[in-house]
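TICKET: design request
STATUS: open
ATTACHED STRUCTURE:
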């Protein structure tokens, strides 16, 4: 999630009974709820460094413990300095270092939990395992979540009891928001056969019928392309299917069908009743499906071994590969685009130089890497 949401959520937590731990509680929660994004310092070495470290160790178990201790130490030191200068001492005692550490660890843990349900994902197990995990429920910025958090903080300021009541209401609304999105995502995937129609082939793995809530990547075949052979001698098969949340509505989703040779994208509104009735003559929703080629030729696989390409492919969940050869020089330009962010669906608050949602590698005729960069 974006840092504004993390901050508002931390202040809301400070208005629950957790706030009774003593002075410094809310400060520790706010700092800790933003601390994992300290990995932005990796941008000083460029976009590739950013992708390599983004949502890595600071978003794992080590981050919870070590960043929690660092945050607690900062807040505890500030509070001790204030207490020494305050005469008479404040009636409300400062929270102990142990309590600040526990609350800071909680704030970091909640940050990670809020990043996990986004289609962007997070690397929960880093640095021990660098796989990404996601649940595809939330956009990077959820305007409804931000509105609920703001409203809970703005209203009901008359007493401590009203503030705690509002915090409880906001937490319930947040849970309801996640629940609605989970149901809507399930419905969007269920509508895929209707909206893709004849464009949706049989599954590459005929035994796979599940669409798990939590997914992880990269898979073993991601950096080498999808299997060349498909069941039954068909020309293509369905390797994966996902529904990505959109920015404004929890009921509008982008379906991404990963085929063995291309991607098919289709926007769907789960409240559209026409998609649930029997198809009438002339109705063909698949005609507005957008198709992206995915060409994993030997030269593309060679380009995928370049360092920048490896970094990008480790981050990208749905990398669509294209290539073009210069007829005069024989130089081959290979480009990848992450289909999760095709069509301007990305809104990353941690802006870095270049487009981190694509990568380009140029190869000489003998396969040597001439140039590589993030972006197109």
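STATUS: resolved
RESOLUTION: sequence designed for all positions
ATTACHED SEQUENCE:
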């Amino acid at each position: 999630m974006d840092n504004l949401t993390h901050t508002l959520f931390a202040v809301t937590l400070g208005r629950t009974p957790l706030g009774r731990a003593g002075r410094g509680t809310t400060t520790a929660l706010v700092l800790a709820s933003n601390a994992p994004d300290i990995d932005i310092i990796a941008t000083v070495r460029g976009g590739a460094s950013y992708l390599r470290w983004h949502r890595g160790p600071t978003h794992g178990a080590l981050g919870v413990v070590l960043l929690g201790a660092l945050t607690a130490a900062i807040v505890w030191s500030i509070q001790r300095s204030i207490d020494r200068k305050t005469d008479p001492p404040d009636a409300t005692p400062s929270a102990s270092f142990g309590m600040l550490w526990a609350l800071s660890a909680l704030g970091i843990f909640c940050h990670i939990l809020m990043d996990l349900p986004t289609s962007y994902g997070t690397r929960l197990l880093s640095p021990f395992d660098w796989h990404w995990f996601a649940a595809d429920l939330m956009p990077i910025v959820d305007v409804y979540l931000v509105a609920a958090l703001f409203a809970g903080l703005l209203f009901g300021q008359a007493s401590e009891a009203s503030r705690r009541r509002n915090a409880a209401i906001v937490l319930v609304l947040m849970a309801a928001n996640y629940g609605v999105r989970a149901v809507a995502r399930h419905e969007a995937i269920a509508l895929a056969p209707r909206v893709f129609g004849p464009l949706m082939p049989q599954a590459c793995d005929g035994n796979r019928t599940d669409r798990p809530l939590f997914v992880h990547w990269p898979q073993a075949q991601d950096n080498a392309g999808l299997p060349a052979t498909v069941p039954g001698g068909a020309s293509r098969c369905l390797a994966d299917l996902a529904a990505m949340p959109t920015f404004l509505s929890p009921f509008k989703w982008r379906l991404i069908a990963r085929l063995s040779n291309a991607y098919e994208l289709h926007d769907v509104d789960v409240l559209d009743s026409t998609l649930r009735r029997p198809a009438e003559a002339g109705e063909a929703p698949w005609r507005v499906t957008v198709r992206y080629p995915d060409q994993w030729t030997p030269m593309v696989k060679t380009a995928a071994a370049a360092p920048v390409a490896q970094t990008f492919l480790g981050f990208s969940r749905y990398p669509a590969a294209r290539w073009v050869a210069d007829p005069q020089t024989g130089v081959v330009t290979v480009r990848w685009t992450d289909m999760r962010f095709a069509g301007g669906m990305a809104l990353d608050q941690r802006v870095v130089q270049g487009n981190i949602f694509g990568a380009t590698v140029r190869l000489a005729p003998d396969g040597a890497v001439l140039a590589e960069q993030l972006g197109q």
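CLOSING REMARK: Strands lie at 132-134, 215-217, 238-245, 252-259, 262-269, 290-293, 319-325, 332-338, 358-363, 369-374. Residues 346-353 have pLDDT under 50 and may be disordered.
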